[in-house]
Amino acid sequence: MEKGGGVVHLVLQQTCHWNHFRYNESRTFQYLKCSTEKKPVAFQDHYRAIFKDLNELLQLGDDNKQDVVEECELPLIDLSKLKNGNKNDVANCTAAIAKASSEFGFFQVLNHGISHELLGEMKEEQKKLFELPFEKKATSKLLNDFYRWGTPSATSLNQFSWSEAFHCPLSDISLKNHSATSSSHFLREVMEKVAGAMLELARTLARVLAEDLGYPGDGFTENCNKSTCFLRLNRYPRCPFSPEVFGLQPHTDSDYLTILYQDEVGGLQLMKDNKWVAVKPNSDALIVNIGDLFQAWSNDIYKSVEHKVMANGKMERYSMAFFLCPSYDSTIGSCKQPSIYNSFTFGDFRKQVQQDVLKTGKKIGLPRFLIT
């Protein structure tokens, strides 16, 4: 986001992160801890249009309530059966993963091999990271300058994401190029452990799904490595005008599959049977969802499902996501014929997504590559 002068009626007043949203004609919303430093940071000019109806949103008050959404429990799969079970256990576990991937596009996994202690350390380091002053996160090249917040391309409220994140390639997390005395040393150490464990888990799940469709699983993820995959640390601050703003706008993931670790706050929703359903948090499980590349490769057998995060007016939310991606020059073709999609490289796919977001304000994704 660019820095600039004040914005009429709406000023983003930076203390610790986005510590105040100050609405000069109405009231002040404080949703983070304050510090003594207060430097105003304004929205980019085009954000004025996005929030032009803020008067009305704020005046609605308690009448501005979010629609009630049905809560669901995702399929829960015990992965210990893959490693320690007999042949029948392995077959049943494989079938459960494939079924959930085709019917839901989302599922939860237990006994996934990543300790609660490590995930707890990651959450604590993540909180410390986001508690740093905004200017330090935005300008000091923490984690190699992969900090982002809001949605720079947004032109309306429904395109805006009320969140901040560090979106890091796994290769840039490595401690090799950083001093042991660096302020981010322990953070990187924990991130590197988590990323390595999630990469191994993601490869295992991808192998299982590929083999279930008759494809040699060992070669499926050979182009997915630390230089191509990403770890994203998310924070969703309390939002004073929830539910008019998304924590993360509706989208599908541009990868093979995603592994999500989230706190107990909730807010994740997915599209099921043409309606939004809320995912019930489970502190013992990781969430896995199919990405666009797996849907294209499987010829629509596995489903990349639209999902979103709702902003929360009372509590902040933390999550961490791992994205299993191939190299940009990897060709994605369907494993079955006749193919529904034209073949494309991952680089071409990302380029098309970025162009569509700039032109239309939203991702179009796989429909761009349908064979007509």
Helix content: 25-40%
Strand count:
19
Summing up helix and strand content along with how strands pair, one would put the structural category as: alpha+beta
Q: Main β-sheet: number of strands, strand sense, barrel status?
A: 8 strands, mixed
Query: What average pLDDT do the residues reach?
Result: 82
The amount of beta strand, in percent, is: 15-25%
Question: What is the CATH topology assignment of the largest domain?
Answer: Jelly Rolls
**CATH H level of the largest domain: which superfamily?**
B-lactam Antibiotic, Isopenicillin N Synthase, Chain
Biggest sheet, strands in spatial order?
6-7-15-12-17-10-9-8
CATH architect. name of the largest domain: Sandwich
H and E string: EEEEHHEEHHEHHEEHHEEEEEEHEEEEH
What's a quick, concise take on this entry?
This protein is an alpha+beta fold and 372 residues long.
Report on the architecture of this protein.
The protein has 2 domains: about 1-65, no CATH class; about 70-370, B-lactam Antibiotic, Isopenicillin N Synthase, Chain (Jelly Rolls), CATH 2.60.120. An 8-stranded mixed sheet has the order 6-7-15-12-17-10-9-8. Helix content is about 30%, strand content about 20%. The protein contains 10 helices and 19 strands. The two termini are about 40 Å apart. By secondary structure, the chain is of the alpha+beta class. It has helices spanning about 45-50, 55-60, 80-85, 85-105, 115-130, 135-140, 170-175, 185-210, 290-295, 345-360; strands at about 10-15, 20-25, 30, 40, 70, 75-80, 105-110, 145-150, 165-170, 230-235, 245-250, 255-260, 270, 275-280, 285-290, 305-310, 315-325, 330, 345. α4 packs across α8 and α5 (about 115-130) crosses α8 (about 185-210).
